[in-house]
UniProtKB/TrEMBL annotation:
It comes from Streptomyces himastatinicus ATCC 53653. Its cofactor is pyridoxal 5'-phosphate. It catalyses: L-isoleucine + 2-oxoglutarate = (S)-3-methyl-2-oxopentanoate + L-glutamate; L-leucine + 2-oxoglutarate = 4-methyl-2-oxopentanoate + L-glutamate; L-valine + 2-oxoglutarate = 3-methyl-2-oxobutanoate + L-glutamate. GO terms for molecular function: L-isoleucine-2-oxoglutarate transaminase activity; L-leucine-2-oxoglutarate transaminase activity; L-valine-2-oxoglutarate transaminase activity. InterPro entries: Aminotrans_IV, Aminotrans_IV_CS, Aminotransferase-like, B_amino_transII, BCAT-like_C, BCAT-like_N, BCAT_family. The modification N6-(pyridoxal phosphate)lysine is found at residue 201. This is Branched-chain-amino-acid aminotransferase. One of its GO terms (biological process) is L-valine biosynthetic process. PANTHER family: BRANCHED-CHAIN-AMINO-ACID AMINOTRANSFERASE (PTHR11825:SF44), SUBGROUP IIII AMINOTRANSFERASE (PTHR11825). Belongs to the class-IV pyridoxal-phosphate-dependent aminotransferase family. The keyword Transferase applies. It is an enzyme of class 2 (transferase). It holds the Pfam family Aminotran_4. The keyword Amino-acid biosynthesis applies.
Length: 361
């Protein structure tokens, strides 16, 4: 089956420059959306077809749409940054495309070709490039997603799907500076188990996490930290972000266990930390290791990483049995250094030695 080209059907009534600039002055995160979206259909026996860039608009769903009943839905998240010369670049979109394929395989959905994923993102960024903010770590956040579009009831993979890319301007995640978060160790709930859907960016994973996040808030914490599903003692993730533990010059992140999401920021930081001369490792870290390391001073910093916030320092930990402070409770030197190094590459303020930036247009 041939890969379809994307037909451009731009809006005849995009937002005015003044209205757009007013939004870009304070975009927040995920609150405003650009003028267009890209949609591509998949039908059994026909493959991918009807690839279009069209005005941003609501989707029309039949009450018997299979996604509403059986949750065949996956998504990705990546960013486009304005470069110093005025051009725009996305960060490692090929990795998002490949992870999207992996999520589709796990959820019994069709795999979108990598080149079509990239073409869809490029088309939207090119059309709505005026929406890409132009200062600091501000960016245009892209949300590709796919849902089952077949109408009917019956527990089985659908035979029709819809792929969509939308975009939202994103301000600095920490507009008043980077502040450490407090975390709640969830011993009652688990995010995922080996053999489950933890390695897929599936909507159901996030729905299942909300009750634990609400529990964290009830305990006065900003985020939840997930433990392994079997022993409930090994650290896995923080909310929807990967975690890193800093032991002086040695940086460790929990190894991929079959239930952790393989984060693209996580993988990038492994390489950047090594470039900066740190010793890096993937391994197993228990709750007791975390607490003891902070008590004896060997564990100096902890941070989480992901597309939205880039790097988030962890300042304090609370569980049903204990609570403790990470380091001095403030963003550490290594956390700050890695965050700056990654952002400098993404925004073009530093060289891109690994060819991670994908120029658009």
């Amino acid at each position: 089956m041939t890969t379809p080209s994307i037909e451009l059907k731009p809006s005849s009534h995009p937002l005015s420059d003044a209205e757009r600039e007013e939004i870009l002055a304070s975009p927040g995160f995920g609150r405003h959306f650009t003028d267009h979206m890209v949609t591509i259909k998949w039908t059994e026996g026909r493959g991918w077809h009807e690839a279009q860039l069209v005005p941003y608009a609501p989707l029309s769903l039949d009450p018997a749409n299979m996604t509403l009943h059986y949750a065949q839905t996956i998504f990705e998240g990546l960013k486009a940054y304005r470069q110093p010369d005025g051009t725009v670049a996305t960060f490692r979109p090929e990795q998002n495309a490949e992870r999207f394929q992996a999520s589709a395989r796990r959820m019994a959905m069709p795999e979108l070709p990598v080149d079509l994923f990239l073409a869809a993102c490029d088309a939207l960024v090119t059309q709505d490039r005026a929406w890409v903010p132009g200062s600091g770590e501000e960016s245009l956040y892209l949300r590709p997603f796919m849902i089952a579009s077949e109408v009917g009831l019956g527990v089985r993979p659908a035979n029709e799907y819809l792929f969509v890319v939308i975009a939202s301007p994103a301000g600095a995640y920490f507009p008043r500076g980077v502040h450490p978060v407090s975390v709640w160790l969830s011993e009652e709930y688990v995010r995922a188990a080996p053999g489950g859907t933890g390695t897929a960016k599936a909507g159901g994973n996030y729905a299942a996490s909300l009750v634990a996040q609400a529990q964290a808030a009830e305990q006065g914490c900003d985020q939840v930290v997930w433990l392994d599903a079997i022993e409930r003692r090994w650290i896995e993730e923080m909310g929807g972000m990967n975690l890193y533990f800093v032991y002086g010059n040695r940086i460790v992140t929990p190894e991929l266990s079959g239930s952790l999401l393989p984060g693209i920021t996580r993988a990038s930081l492994l390489r950047i930390a090594e470039d900066l001369g740190y010793e890096v490792a993937e391994g197993r870290i228990s709750v007791d290791d975390w607490r003891a390391g902070n008590e004896d001073g060997s564990l100096t910093e902890v941070f989480a990483c992901g597309t939205a916030a880039v790097i988030t320092p962890v300042g304090s930990v609370k569980s049903a049995r204990a609570s403790w402070t990470v380091g001095d409770g403030q963003p550490g030197e290594v956390t700050t250094k890695l965050r700056k190094a990654l952002l400098d590459i993404q925004t073009g303020a530093a060289p891109d030695p690994h060819g991670w930036l994908h120029r658009v247009g």
